[in-house]
Amino acid sequence: MSEATTIVPVAIIMGSQSDWSVMKNAADTLEALGVAFDARIVSAHRTPERLYEFARGARDAGFKVIIAGAGGAAHLPGMTAALTPLPVFGVPVESRALSGKDSLLSIVQMPAGIPVGTLAIGRAGAINAALLAAAVLALSDSALAARLDAYRQAQTDAVAPQPRDDA
Ligand code: RP5
């Protein structure tokens, strides 16, 4: 993981330490693509001042894309999007009580004017948020675009034509 003081293009923020097992999938995907990131815990409810400071300063800090994961009453992605013009991708984390449906609905139903690109609940959403972040950065980075193409090709190549009993 990159140091907090290094300027990197992607910020991965999450509402709690308990979100990390899901959000680590975004981090691992970015790492596989050679995209630097900074991962932080920023809670909309427990550390609102940290959220304001991070989101208001994110563009000047050099970030280009923000991935925000949260569960339950998941206000983090929306509040972040309200405070920065950077693209924000929201990852709904599975909640214990409602399996992440609460997280999904909290993140996806933004009012017109403040967008959050909302991904699937859990691991798939975290991975896809990283891939979307990489795709955005690849628009102005041909080396990254080539790595993203290779990632997708490897994924295609890994799909067997027929199912096996022992797989
Ligand atoms: C949210 O509350 C976090 O994003 C987390 O998904 C959820 C539960 O947090 P903990 O009680 O596990 O810290 O703010």
UniProtKB/TrEMBL annotation:
It catalyses: 5-carboxyamino-1-(5-phospho-D-ribosyl)imidazole + H(+) = 5-amino-1-(5-phospho-D-ribosyl)imidazole-4-carboxylate. Gene3D superfamilies: 3.40.50.1970. The keyword ATP-binding does not apply. GO terms for molecular function: 5-(carboxyamino)imidazole ribonucleotide mutase activity. GO terms for biological process: 'de novo' IMP biosynthetic process. SMART domains: AIRC. Substrate binds at residues 16, 19, 46. SUPFAM superfamilies: N5-CAIR mutase (phosphoribosylaminoimidazole carboxylase, PurE). Keywords: Isomerase, Purine biosynthesis. Residues 8-159 form the PurE domain. Its EC number is 5.4.99.18. Pfam families: AIRC. Signal peptide: none annotated. Pathway: Purine metabolism; IMP biosynthesis via de novo pathway; 5-amino-1-(5-phospho-D-ribosyl)imidazole-4-carboxylate from 5-amino-1-(5-phospho-D-ribosyl)imidazole (N5-CAIR route): step 2/2. PANTHER family: PHOSPHORIBOSYLAMINOIMIDAZOLE CARBOXYLASE, PHOSPHORIBOSYLAMINOIMIDAZOLE CARBOXYLASE CATALYTIC SUBUNIT. Belongs to the AIR carboxylase family. Class I subfamily. NCBIfam families: purE. HAMAP family: PurE_classI (MF_01929). Catalyzes the conversion of N5-carboxyaminoimidazole ribonucleotide (N5-CAIR) to 4-carboxy-5-aminoimidazole ribonucleotide (CAIR). This is N5-carboxyaminoimidazole ribonucleotide mutase. It comes from Aurantimonas endophytica. The lineage of its organism: Bacteria, Pseudomonadati, Pseudomonadota, Alphaproteobacteria, Hyphomicrobiales.
